[in-house]
Design brief:
This is Lysoplasmalogenase. InterPro entries: TMEM86B-like. Pfam families: YhhN (PF07947). The chain is mainly α and 229 residues long. The chain is 78% helix and 0% strand. It has one domain (6-221). The chain contains eight helices and no strands. The mean pLDDT is 91.
Length: 229
């Protein structure tokens, strides 16, 4: 990954380091720039790197754009449920864009043996239901919105996994790991917000989040369409 895109990887590493530095030192105003730069830089990277932008690429860019909006809402100084819900809706929309993008490959008519779609579905859905049932007593009026969000991000992970054999393996691998990191990031965020404070939660959330978006983006740039057998 770093070998393929040394300049971008180095630039993104600087942004990631600046974001973590701002978190550790409590520089909230600096984070308006560092956190926003995450998705902005990834969007620019895709635009400059992908010559032919089909449905897949455009939807990933849409997902990054709504992720940017979600980041902005969650950074607003007045921490109310209203801004949290706006951020959640923005990220939910981002995941829908990712789902529709991954569906482009998952619905490819190329034949793939032993896709194990049912086990993948069961593993992801079991995790989704378990997390929601654990959080449910702490959610109050947000039970329904959180349930919907859990379902959507789980479907994002499932669709990423179902790209196996439908695209080149490098793209599949990076995007699949990116989707898993995204789920981990949001799980930690939800536990930290609704259940109990987690040590170093902001760092854990942002490291996994930045890793997720970076992997999804590089997987998009590396994507090659697999033709039907």
């Amino acid at each position: 990954m770093i070998k393929n895109y040394p300049q971008f990887s180095f630039g993104f590493a600087i942004i990631a380091f600046a974001e973590l530095f701002a978190i550790v030192n409590g520089f909230d105003e600096l984070r308006y720039f560092t956190k926003s730069a995450i998705c902005i830089s990834l969007i620019i990277f895709i635009i400059l790197s992908v010559k032919r932008k089909g449905r897949f690429t455009k939807r990933i860019i849409g997902g990054l754009f709504f992720s940017l909006l979600g980041d902005i809402f969650l950074m607003l100084p007045v921490h109310t449920d209203t801004f949290f819900i706006c951020g959640m809706v923005a990220f939910l929309t981002a995941h829908l864009f990712y789902i529709f993008a991954f569906y482009v490959d998952a619905s490819n008519e190329v034949k793939v043996e032993h896709r194990n779609a049912l086990p993948v579905f069961l593993v992801y859905m079991t995790f989704c239901v378990s997390v929601f049932l654990y959080l449910r007593p702490y959610l109050g009026a947000l039970k329904i919105p959180i349930m919907v969000y859990c379902f959507v991000i789980t479907m994002m992970g499932i669709m990423a996994a179902l790209r196996y054999g439908k695209t080149n393996f490098r793209s599949f691998k990076w995007i699949c790991w990116g989707s898993i990191l995204f789920i981990i990031s949001d799980t930690v965020l939800a536990y930290n917000k609704f259940v109990a404070q987690v040590d170093y939660a902001p760092l854990i959330i942002m490291v996994t989040y930045m890793g997720a978006q970076f992997l999804i983006t590089t997987g998009t740039v590396e994507r090659k369409y697999v033709k039907k057998n």
